[in-house]
Amino acid sequence: MAHERAKLSWSDVTPKAQFLQRRSLLAGIGASAVLGALPAQAKIAARPSAYSTDAKPNTFEEITTYNNFYEFGWDKTDPARHAGKLRTDPWSVEIAGLVERPGSYALDDILKNVTLEERIYRLRCVEAWSMVIPWIGFPLADLLNRAGVQPGAKYVAFETLLRPEEMPGQRGGGIDWPYVEGLRLDEAMHPLTILASGLYGEELPKQNGAPLRLVVPWKYGFKSIKSIVRITLTDAMPRTTWKALQPREYGFYANVNPEVDHPRWSQATERRIGAGLFAKREPTLMFNGYADEVAGLYAGMDLRVNY
Ligand SMILES: Nc1nc2c(c(=O)[nH]1)N[C@H]1C(S)=C(S)[C@@H](COP(=O)(O)O)O[C@H]1N2
Ligand SMILES: [Mo]
């Protein structure tokens, strides 16, 4: 099973230095040939990244069975049970708005022209649970630069697929579908911001947002929109799903911040999925531990007002 393969090929069971060495070796000598020849190897070759955390990743099973993907239901186990119906091939992404080369781009074409990296990132949900996920992806900036951002662009808006025939949650649920999200342009261009097409060295499982999803590791998980079909460069702050639903609880910025509580719960600590019933909650870190990289984006801003 794909599942077992992924577990075996993972750095978790390989000392990190050896893992990184193997990865760079593969990158140098034709990764796909070598990967094909070896049993129990990752299907997607990706370079290691200095942006990866050393924290121990969650298991493939945890990452793919405890999900938020309301298009498939509100329970954490709904996405794994229902996302199989989603057709992700063919897939294209429309790039629209204030860009030099707007159009509909085939996913294959996008992926052929980028360098995939492995980014092991912390994911902190606004609900105060967290995971560590080994994504495979590429900087969003690479795609935006290729599309050519026009000078007037200030924000980037993202849209998830709207297909209620395959996404049962879209037949109701109180959300104004499709799910939409957005970033300020400088956040979108930040090197930590990636589009992910895989995890644990494999194609992205559907419940995790196949075939292409955003990952913004210093923000609450709801910003990391799944199954993207449209990216629009705009001059005005776009509407975002959770802010539209509960503006006092969820803001546009949604930066992880242990000092700004959710109106209904504390954000000072988090529960690491898989840590066990008796594990202590962990302290939540400012910007989810990425403050050195991103705090400068918010210099002079009141983070209690801009939550
Ligand atoms: N389209 C879409 N994207 C989404 C969501 C969703 O319901 N629909 N949930 C968000 C939330 S709340 C979180 S915490 C993360 C969860 O990602 P994961 O299931 O891959 O861990 O996806 C985010 N992206
Ligand atoms: Mo979330």
Automatic annotation (TrEMBL):
Its EC number is 1.8.5.-. Gene3D superfamilies: Oxidoreductase, molybdopterin-binding domain. HAMAP family: MsrP. It is an enzyme of class 1 (oxidoreductase). Keywords: Metal-binding, Molybdenum, Oxidoreductase, Signal. GO terms for molecular function: oxidoreductase activity. Part of the MsrPQ system that repairs oxidized periplasmic proteins containing methionine sulfoxide residues (Met-O), using respiratory chain electrons. Thus protects these proteins from oxidative-stress damage caused by reactive species of oxygen and chlorine generated by the host defense mechanisms. MsrPQ is essential for the maintenance of envelope integrity under bleach stress, rescuing a wide series of structurally unrelated periplasmic proteins from methionine oxidation. Residues 87-242 form the Oxidoreductase molybdopterin-binding domain. Binds 1 Mo-molybdopterin (Mo-MPT) cofactor per subunit. Mo-molybdopterin binds at residues 67, 70-71, 125, 160, 208, 213, 224-226. It catalyses: L-methionyl-[protein] + a quinone + H2O = L-methionyl-(R)-S-oxide-[protein] + a quinol; L-methionyl-[protein] + a quinone + H2O = L-methionyl-(S)-S-oxide-[protein] + a quinol. This is Protein-methionine-sulfoxide reductase catalytic subunit MsrP. Its cofactor is Mo-molybdopterin. Predicted to be exported by the Tat system. The position of the signal peptide cleavage has not been experimentally proven. Heterodimer of a catalytic subunit (MsrP) and a heme-binding subunit (MsrQ). PANTHER family: PROTEIN-METHIONINE-SULFOXIDE REDUCTASE (PTHR43032), PROTEIN-METHIONINE-SULFOXIDE REDUCTASE CATALYTIC SUBUNIT MSRP (PTHR43032:SF3). Belongs to the MsrP family.
